[in-house]
Amino acid sequence: SLQDEETRKDYDYMLDHPEEYYRHYYHYYSRRLAPKVDVRIVILVTVCAISVFQFFSWWSSYNEAINYLATVPKYRIQATEIARQQGLLNRTKEKGKNRRSKEEIREEEEEIIKDIIKNKIDIKGGYQKPKIYDILLFQILLAPFYLCKYLVWYCWWIYCFTIKGQEYGKEEKLYIIRRYMKMSQSQFDSLEDHQKETFLERQLWIRENYEVYKQEQEEELKKKMAMDPRWKRYRRWMRNEGPGRLTFIDD
């Protein structure tokens, strides 16, 4: 019959072209068995997981930083003075029924000092309290806003200082210096105020002045390294032994 003839032709074709059969077979079952998951959901879940990890990791690092700052005299003295002014340290030394051991008093005073460092003292640079807007999820959501904000600021900069030729203010000078030094905002904020004043006094926002300053810093660093005993030992080792030095010893 006609149907048997067509079936025979299809059968003969598949025998002559087996690679097509297996290809169709593979594509058919790969589509049937593939998990039907929306890629957008996978990306969203991944971003959220990374953001949660970021936030808790930053908080852990922040608490470690506070514990460290509580041992730094500059911050500890400020915090202790504020605690005394507010009468917080006197409460830890109550007598009578509420009397506590010296260890308990010491621990409570330590917590008071840390709490004041967190909330009362202006901490700059990498020790700042983590902000939820810094995590990946919000950075992605706010990317269009940050882009528009940067374009507005850039146009304002060009208009004021390139077109109109206005003189730089203090913040603009420090911004240019920071860009020359290739430092992030948090790194630059962590510098002492007297260092920034030195930058301004030397007019480092002018490229030529900055290049002179950079050369001086490099020379000073070379002198320090030359006088450092550890660096001397390292150079001696590199000269005498060094990584990858081949030796041949006869048995």
TrEMBL record:
Signal peptide: none annotated. The chain crosses the membrane at residues 41-59, 136-159. PANTHER family: DNAJ HOMOLOG SUBFAMILY C MEMBER 25. This is DnaJ subfamily C member 25. It is found in: Membrane. It comes from the Eukaryota. InterPro entries: DNAJC25-like. One of its GO terms (cellular component) is endoplasmic reticulum membrane. Keywords: Chaperone, Membrane, Transmembrane, Transmembrane helix. GO terms for biological process: protein folding.
